[in-house]
Amino acid sequence: MIPSSTRNDHLPVYESLVRERGDVVEEARVAAEQTQRQMTEALNGHEAVQPEQGPR
Prior knowledge:
Blueprint: H1 12-21, H2 24-43
């Protein structure tokens, strides 16, 4: 049987990297959502809102 890629497996290496380096995937998702919201506002003629600066 081939394991399902949709299964929620325990990934200790990934979890370790997140602890050490931060959750880059989550940060990218948040940045993409902010960009999409800003572009939608810009295309609809609303003034763009500056993104919040998170901890670095």
